[in-house]
Please model this.
Amino acid sequence: MPNTNPATEIDVAIVGAGPIGLIFANALARRGVTAMLIDRQPRSALASPASDGREIALTRATQQILERLDVWPRIPESERARMRGAKVFDGESLFAMQIAPGGVPDQPLGCLVPNHVIRRAAYSALDDLDETEADGIFWRDGVELERFADDDAGVDITLASGERVRAGLLVAADGRFSATRRAMGIAAHTYQHGQHMLVCRMNHEQAHDQTAWEWFGHGQTLALLPVDTHCSSVVLTLSPSDMEAQLGLSQEAFDADITRRFDHRLGAMTKAEPDAEWHRYPLASVYAERFAGRRQALLGDAAVGMHPVTAHGFNLGVDGLWRLAGLVGDARAAARDIATPTLLSRYQREQRLATGPLFAATMAIVGLYTDDRRRAQWLRKALLRAGDAAWPVRRLIASHLTRAID
Ligand SMILES: Cc1cc2nc3c(=O)[nH]c(=O)nc-3n(C[C@H](O)[C@H](O)[C@H](O)COP(=O)(O)OP(=O)(O)OC[C@H]3O[C@@H](n4cnc5c(N)ncnc54)[C@H](O)[C@@H]3O)c2cc1C
Model:
């Protein structure tokens, strides 16, 4: 039987209460804009997400935005690891390209925080909004969007539960394989890298110097992200079949294999939590052809799903939500429509400018470093040693990581 109940009226309907959806709703509520969060997961899972193995390198700008939204103070000091710089190695060579912050002495390049800790803090900040702001947040968990129809004045949404919602703006924040983006008819350039990434914390005998390592060997890519003096998050990228074999190793053999892959540079390495489950990600990069449509916008990985090698996906998502919440909030403060075509095309233009060069640079790095042919090997050796002038990517990455907001 058709649902004859009146539709719930809302300013912004957000599909996806991942870190980006949660923080976006928080930013909107503080600007007096009502938001509905729609997620297929139950609220209990969103409130206390389990570890997913990801360590997120946060830029200075992201930290400032999280501070303003009361998310940053909810991240315990013990979960924040300072990253002084990053080194990029190629093959067996001990030579490394250094990525370090320019300018301010002692300024770290970034700060590493586990993804589930960010999600927990984002949820708790939203939960603790003051009463007036919290009144503007509507939760629909354990449910998906079934269909929608947009017109010049708004979007009519039907949830799988049968509930009808009328929103001024529909936002897709449901991750890189976004079903909402597809339903909006927005195409996306998707690059399947044909590789899998394994993330796990390892203890090591030798101390590191709070520096992240990116190590491109032949047939494998390794990264090491500092957690504590003698503990790091190890990121191993292999072909799916090599990954199967890797995960079939006994604990002892796995530890010995990782120690060998890191060339004993940090001494013997052992899995920090031997019983912890493996976290494995098939690698895909996504760039949507448009970030906006009539009364529609894309945010976070639904707009740009970055390869993790340059550690920017979440940061670009925060940049985008801050931009969109600013535009929507300013329109609300001036009693204007919150989702005009002009507003949305400004969001799209600015967000594409902010993400396009980094996405392209990241894809170039991935292409160059995972190509084991002789010419590519020669080219990356030359580039690693060439310095700033020939390697602007290095400055682009460092300046993004240390950039502050206005
Ligand atoms: C190994 C790894 C390391 C990374 N390291 C970094 C780093 O160092 N720095 C960095 O900036 N970024 C990093 N990233 C990227 C970062 O994790 C993502 O950019 C970020 O999680 C994206 O958040 P999101 O909210 O857009 O999407 P997601 O986290 O994917 O959340 C999407 C939400 O939508 C919900 N959902 C999905 N489909 C539907 C549907 N149909 N209906 C309703 N709800 C739905 C899901 O339940 C989920 O809650 C890394 C990623 C990986 C894989």
